[in-house]
Amino acid sequence: GAPFLKNADVILLADCVPVAYPALHRDFLKDHAVLMACPKLDDFEAHLAKLTSIIKQSDLKSLTVVHMEVPCCSGLTYMARKAITNSGRNVSLKEITIGIRGQIISQDKIAI
What we know:
The protein has helices spanning 17-20, 24-29, 44-58, 75-87; strands at 9-14, 33-37, 62-68, 92-98, 104-110. By secondary structure, the protein is an alpha/beta fold. The longest helix has 15 residues, at 44-58.
């Protein structure tokens, strides 16, 4: 029920991305609400439940996952897809992958 999430464009950000991608604020964060997680070290089920609740209650405009290219980080995209499905809402989903050298590797719209 946080006001900054109502009708927001949301970035779900892997917590290591800001260290690897110094232009994060300039390139991605303007006019977006930010949620941050680590799919490897955090409690996946707790984050999934919270994200599902946010999607249900906040009528998000869009959700963009920004994660590193390492295998564990793609778990954030899985979490986002599952949360959207579990919420029953129609939210557009985009995935941006950042390389370990700080470059954008890919930007894709994801079908749910």
